[in-house]
Specification:
Number of domains: 2
Low-confidence stretches: 41-52
Helix content: under 10%
Order of helices and strands: HEEEEEEEEEEEEE
CATH class of the largest domain: Mainly Beta
CATH topology of the largest domain: OB fold (Dihydrolipoamide Acetyltransferase, E2P)
Distance between the termini: 18 Å
Mean pLDDT: 77
Strand content: 35-45%
Amino acid sequence: MAKLQIDEGLVRKLSQLLEETGLTEIEYESAGQRIRVARNGIAAAPPAAVAPAVVPTITDDRGDVVPINAVTSPMVGTVYLGLEPDAAPFVNVGDSVEKGQTLVIIEAMKVMNQIPSPRAGKVTGILISNGQPVEYGEPLLVIE
């Protein structure tokens, strides 16, 4: 897999376009490389105060667009960001995490499965929302 060269100016322009149009995501492709910029799906503040999350992406072998450094779902189920609906999430954008730390819970066949961090790093994007159904291999969050 070739290393993606990120044009920061283009990412900034796409982020500004999101703000101006009210779109939730925008994707741009050139010379076989794709960049997708999306608003963060989880917000503690009102939507008007939410800045777009810049999530560089690559295209995998199946042709799916996947964020670089994404943690993907190991199973099909329903994802939960915290222990209870009103509980604080396990992690937030900007948090530092350790390898093995619980990131989310995925309920599959009435079994609650803790999804651990595969590596230490900083959470730079949460790509799912609480109670959302997820598929095997679907990106959940990004850890740099």
